[in-house]
Structures are given as C-alpha cells and as structure tokens.
Amino acid sequence: MATRDSATEHRRPGRPRLLDAVALDVVARLAREHPHDALPDLRRRVVAELGRDVSTQTLRKRLREMGFVRVVPPVPRAVVQHERRVPAAPPRRSQPARYGYGAEHRDKAPEAPYMHCLSDAEWALVEDLFDDKVRGVPRRYSRRSMVDAMCFVVRGGIPWRMLPQEFPPWNLVFKTFRRWSARKRFETMQHRLRAMWREREGRSPEPSAAVLDSQSVRTSAQGGEKGYDAGKKVKGRKRHVLTDTMGLLLTVCVLAANVADRDAAERVVDAGLAISPSLAVVFVDSAYAGASRDRIEATHPGLRLDVVRHPQNRSVGRLAERGQQKFDFAGDSRAFVPLPKRWAVERTNAWNDRPRRLAKDQERTTESSAAWIWFTSARLLLRRLALHEA
User: Fold this and answer.
1) Smaller CB count within 10 Å for the chain: N or C?
2) CB-side neighbour CA atoms (13 Å) of 230
3) Can you tell me the distance from the alpha carbon of 349 to that of 345, in angstroms, rounded to the nearest whole number?
4) 8 Å CB contact between 148 and 118
5) pLDDT (tens digit per residue) in 69-111
C-alpha cells in the first residue's frame, strides 16, 4: 500500500498558470499607468495587450499576489460655512498677454454699428456659405447683415422682436435662421473652420480621438421638450457634446434632461463617426462605463471608449502597491480637477455658457438650441482665424 508521501510524489503537476512572469510584468505596468481603472477596465487593457482571455477573478488574485491593493479616498470633511479660500496670486508676466482684436481688426461694413458684428476678415472666410443665388427680385438686405443680427441676438440674449432698427426686420432674420438651421449652414461653417484651425495647429484636419460629455441647463417658460435631471437637480434640457481633444465641436445633440447619458451616448457617437470616420478612441467619464460602452464598441468595431475617472471616485478608488496606500489627493471631493483629455470638453461647455442666449435655454425646439450651439462655436473659431490671418 502506497504511503501518503509516495502518492504526493507521483501526483500529476497542475495546470500551468495563464499569466507567466512576462505577462505579470505587463499587468503591473498597466496597473501603474492606469491606477484609477476599475477591474473590468483593467482586464480589457490586459486582454488587448496580451491577447489572452483573462478573467477578473484571476486578475484580482494576481494583483493581490504582486502587492497591489485598492485604495479608497477618505470621506471629505464637512465644509465650514464661513470658511473662505484665498486664491493664489497668478505669476506676473514681463509683458501683458494680448487678447481680442486690435484696432486694425475692427473694419466693418457701414451698416454694422455694433461690436459683435463680423469684420471684413471674418466675413471673407464664410461668405460663400451664405451667399445663395437669387432668382427674380434682388435681395433687400445683405446676407452679412442677417449674420450680424444673429450675432447680436445670441450674444445679448434678447428676443427676436427686440432687434434694433439698424438690422433687418426681426421676422426676416428669424425665418432666415430657421432656414439656415434646417440646411445645416452653421454646422458646415463649424466643420470648415475646425479643419482650418487644426491645420494651423499642425494637426490632421480630421481627429482620431474625441471627448464625450453632457451639460444640463435650465429652460425658460417658452415651452418645448424638457425634463428633470435628478443628478444635477436641473429641470430643463441636456446638451450632449462630442469634441476633439482641442475642445472643438464635432457634434451636439440636445435632449430632455431626464435622458441619461448612457442612453444618448450611442446616438451622439453615431453622429460623430458620420462626420469624422477616423475616430479611434473616445474619452468619457464613469457615467458611460458598463453596458453602454460595451454596446457602442460592439456596434462600431475598432472604436474604443476610454473611461477617465475622477481621482476622488470612492466607488472604484485606485490601485496602489504596498507601502503607497496613502491617498495622495488633498482637497475637497467637490473641487474641480482637470482630468486628462476630459478637461477639453469641460472647457467647451463653459464656452457655450458665455452667450446670454445659451446661459439658459430659451428655445421652443431642440433643433434651434443645437443650431445656436453650432453658430456660437463657429463664431468663436471665426474670430480666432481672422485674428491669426491678420
């Protein structure tokens, strides 16, 4: 009868480990490069890097063996009501920064008396987009005066009926705005100017990476489609914006505020790929993780959605090696932190809030709301390009 020791000596060797020493080095490197990734996100990176199907249980066990632990930030302390933070003084520059136009860039047409009207250099870049051929009776008002009136309305946030007398009649400007919106003139203007600005910055005209985010805004009593965003406590609409990594608008979709980000993501990504088929990666926040991301990636092979999480995310935390368990982010969890790539779309949302017409959604239809965003984004690029060309 064989003893227990002899049976142990003749036992067959177990199945070899799926992750050898070289693979474990790759896993450790990915964990250090992306410490804020959730375990399913890290598993996707490991599978893409090694070409092996590794389960989350195996990955969790190997990370624990290598000394990686999940660190969760502490609960933020209560904010004192009378506490005031004094911002640090910005560093002084030897020469003051130059912003906006100079006197040489303010050449306007005689019928354009307001500061928000287009200059000659700006109108020369987009004149062909609005100068349609007319059959029959000639136009009474120039196309440039129509665009100037729209600039005045969106910047001042006034109703159409309050247009000054120096502009064409308000009903003609309104009908022209609706007609150009239906024909996507403002969208075409934005795409042209975006390609010109990217070439000026030494980049390809069509981007390969984009950033997706949403912004909830309140609506007026004008009526139309609206809803309630329980997360932001906002009753109104939500602007779903897709930009490149420079913050330049690629596509925008305005929906009711009760439509979740994950439900509108596929529609926005489809519109972005129709405009820029060269997109290979889209940076998103944690609201788009999970089934929404898997559905989009399955629908569009070759497209990757990269989740960029906040460093104070307590639901996921971050991976850290033993001896580095201390959470190194100091400050309030509600403080703004410029996250990689995602800060560009946050800045674009801030740009969209500057005109008074867009600070609060005052449109009856979502198509008009989206048209104003296209127009505002193109107007900003138009000013930059005219200043550079001059």
Assistant:
1) N
2) 2
3) 6
4) yes
5) 887 777 665 444 444 455 555 555 565 555 455 554 555 555 5
Tens of pLDDT, residue by residue over 304-354, are: 999 888 777 777 777 888 766 555 544 455 566 778 888 999 999 999 989
Angstrom distance (rounded) from CA 40 to CA 54? 10
Under DSSP, the state recorded for 332 is: -
Per DSSP, the three-state class of 41 is helix
In eight-state DSSP terms, residue 12 is P
Cα(40)–Cα(59) distance, integer angstroms: 10
Say how far apart CA 99 and CA 328 lie, in whole Å: 37
Nearest-10 Cα torsion for 126, 127, 133, 139 = 130
The crossing angle, in degrees rounded to 10, of helices 143-156 and 120-130 is 110
What would you report as the CA-atom Rg of the chain, rounded to the nearest whole angstrom? 27
CA 366 to chain centre: 19
* Of residues 173, 148, 151, the one with CA closest to residue 160: 173
Q: Are strands 234-244 and 209-218 parallel, antiparallel or unpaired?
A: antiparallel
C-alpha 63/C-alpha 55 separation (Å) is 12
Are 318 and 311 in contact, with CB atoms under 8 Å apart? yes
Using an 8 Å Cβ cutoff, are 59 and 27 in contact?
yes
Q: Give the Å distances, CA to CA, from 162 to 70, 157, 361, 389.
A: 59, 10, 18, 34
Report the alpha-carbon distance of residue 229 to residue 238 in Å, rounded.
8
The two tokens of residue 227 are 């809803």
Structure-token match 């239809």, residue found: 365
Mention every residue, 6+ apart, whose C-beta is less than 8 A from residue 345. Answer: 211, 212, 213, 241, 243, 247
Look at 193 and 323; give whichever has higher pLDDT: 193
DSSP reduced 3-state for 69: strand
Percent of the chain with pLDDT over 90: 50
Token pair in block for residue 358: 């867009």
